[in-house]
Amino acid sequence: MPTAEPPIYTSLPPTMTPDPCGPETISDEIEMIKSSLNEFQEVAFIASNTPVELLITPVMRLQEIHQNLNSLAVPGCMLKLKQATYNYTASIVIYYSKLMNKKTAKEAEADFENSKLLWPLVEIEYEKVVREGRLEFQPLTSYENVLIPETGLKAIAFNEGDQTVNVRETPDLNGKILTLLENGAQAIIIGRTEKGDWLRVSVQGVNGWVYSEMVALNVDIKEIGVVN
Description:
The protein is an alpha+beta fold. It has 2 domains: about 25-145; about 155-225, Roll (SH3 type barrels), CATH 2.30.30.40. It is about 40% helix and about 15% strand. It has 5 helices and 7 strands. The longest helix has 26 residues, at about 25-50. The radius of gyration is 24 Å and the shape is globular. The N and C termini lie far apart (about 80 Å). The model is unreliable at about 145-155 (pLDDT under 50).
């Protein structure tokens, strides 16, 4: 009887462990942090133009974004960015919380000055993670991009027409309508597109875009900062 040949075992190729800080792994976390921080900056800007007695709504939203950022699970290479983000957003929330309380309002300025020191650390850690993760770098929205540094004035959009103006989710005519700017109403301007054809505004706590030709402004549109 012929002798049976012993079975031949072929070794499997080694399983590649994905890089926890590679672009495929951290892209979603980076995008979430970036979009959350950009929204935080916009809401903080709105809060800076809101009377103290009405601050509760933007402050609650700032606190919500702060908590969401803190609960985000990130790999080790992003821990410093998460900590820097936590420190900065916490300082802003504390600032406005103290501002609402007459007993602590005088102490609030120190927290605001502290936030100005903490923000550059966020930008440094953010750029470091993006560069090392080989992702496309897109700057974060800073206060310099949403304020009007030349005059320090609050930019306002007025609906002086006979019809309501649509406030859309994106700066195009196909964007989802989020709310309406009623006839005779006004909105705080957060920024504009590069061409100036759309304005980023806040209407009763809702952030969206209005077509610039549909509203009147209290400032020259060139003085309004460009935002993403």
